[in-house]
Amino acid sequence: MHPAHPLRIFAFSGLISLVLAVVVALSGGVGALWLFVVLALLEVTFSFDNAVINSRILARMSPLWQKLFLTVGIFIAVFVVRFALPIVIVQLATGLGFGDVVNLALSDPHRYGEELHHAAPIIDAFGGTFLLMLGISYFLDHEKVVHWLRPIERPLARAGKIRFIKLIFMTVVAAILYLTVEEKLKNTVLLSSVIGIVLQFGLHSLSVFFEKTFSSTNKSGQLVGWAAFASFMYLEVLDASFSFDGVIGAFAITTSVLLIVAGLGVGAFWVRSLTVYLMRAGTLAKYRYLEHGAHWAILALGVVMLVKLYHVELPEWITGSLGLIFIMTAVITSILEKRFDKSSQ
User: Is 1 domain-assigned?
Assistant: First the structure.
């Protein structure tokens, strides 16, 4: 079977989904099974654009690091990002011990969900600035020659010639957030946004540094060693930034922490499989503007997270649909342009 065959790539995710679905149905009935499916779909919808970006980065990593992304990485994605990290955030927001928050999550999930919602400014400021910087970095690249939304992307590419323009832009964003959010959130939002900016810039810079300094590539030109490790960590932080909204939104669907972890965890498996499929199928090469659409989707999600700091809450279905709309539009545009080019030859 060809390595890019969907059955080969998605088989394990399908098996995990089936096993967990049976467990959920036996323990919670048809109602719990339905919520499990909804949560899995929510995760895939929120993270589809994440898979597109991941596939580009993963394609540059060696087979060993690709396997680590699918094994160690999925453990981090499910148990660290979707279970432990929200607990740590609630711990920081409430001052409770880690064990106390775990007990709260399992014994009183409704209150745990409320505490997580109270900690949302930390999540939104960090995730919003991280995603916004990731998205704007793609367009503020003066070497980028392919443009999708040309009236917007061309000026942004020219602006990329200005030294440190990305940091200048994000510093202005952080300052605006600090000056405009309500008084009690100012310090929290400033610290979280600065951490998001520094982490995004730092991980990207480390990857470039290791790649150039240690020649961390194999014979095929794929990243190995420290450069691959930096890219691996970048992928995990990126996954966390995309997942925060899903974790918080999940409590609007159910207050069962175990059901949330199961549903979002299965969704994470499907997103990882989708990443591998996009990489092996060479999807980015087939659809010229797919990566552009993914980065516009990332920008949109980053903005959505930041406006939540001003108590502007969009319905989950709208937030999840934004990414799909950008990506599908980019794919359709790519197909139409390719057909037009062939017909004009």
Answer: no
